[in-house]
Amino acid sequence: MHTPTRLFHLHFNTPDVSGAENRLAVRGLPLYRRFGRVDGEFRALEADDPVPDEFRLRLQDAERGYANVTLAPGRRPHFDHLGLCTSEFDAICDRAEDAGWSVRDRDGRRTFVMTPWEFRVELHPDGSEVEIDLGSWDDAHFGTVELVIPNDNEDENNEDETAAHEFAAVFGDVPGLEIRAGEDVWVPRFRLVGSAFSDEIQIDEVRIETKNLL
Question: Mean per-residue pLDDT for 122-146?
Fold first, then answer.
């Protein structure tokens, strides 16, 4: 059953997009689409489409079910943002603005909440075009996503609780999202669950270590 707010998307930059693409596919998250330009013209390619000469990749999606991971070219491995679908869209935007966080393109196709931790949260209301394009939750979704957030709190014993509390004060409960304190923003690992990963021996999850991915 869907909860009010669900994590559907992670976005990483990497200097080795093709290698990361292959490693995701091996772990059960196949390439879905590529986006880029040819001679300045925007092109969207399905996974099986031939890649044109002079194609300049902007980003690409790996997807299964309700889980989407975007890879974009970058000079170094970097976690850019996560994405949520929610029935509490307006309430979350209001709480973010009340907290002094910037909410960009609130009435547009892709709304971004700018957190104070140097990463963004892409936010979509239930029934949006982006959510409709996703597959089945039962097929695959994020079971666990570990998120590291830098914390300047002087009380080191409560760093994890403080970061998680500040995030939850805006976004509410996001099942499966585990927040802990660290030096840099990063998602060190995530776990996919769902019927897509089940077989005769009942393997029904896959855990991906991003340090080995990017």
Answer: 95
Q: How many CB atoms are closer than 10 A to CB 49?
A: 11
In contact, 34 and 45? CB cutoff 8 Å: yes
Residue type, 181: A
pTM: 0.92
| Burial class for 107, CB neighbours closer than 10 Å (0-12, 13-18, 19+) | exposed
The residue range of the domain holding 150 is: 5-36+54-212
pLDDT reported for residue 70: 97
Q: Is 118 left (phi over 0), alpha (psi -120 to 50) or beta?
A: left
Q: State the average pLDDT over residues 147-172.
A: 77
Query: Which whole number is the average pLDDT over 173-179?
Result: 96
Number of domains in the chain: 1
Q: Is residue 42 part of a domain?
A: no
Report phi then psi at 60, rounded to 5. -145, 155
Please tell me the distance from the alpha carbon of residue 180 to that of residue 38, in angstroms, as a whole number: 41
Nearest residue to 11 via CA among 104, 110, 156: 110
Whichever domain contains 123, its CATH number is 3.10.180.10
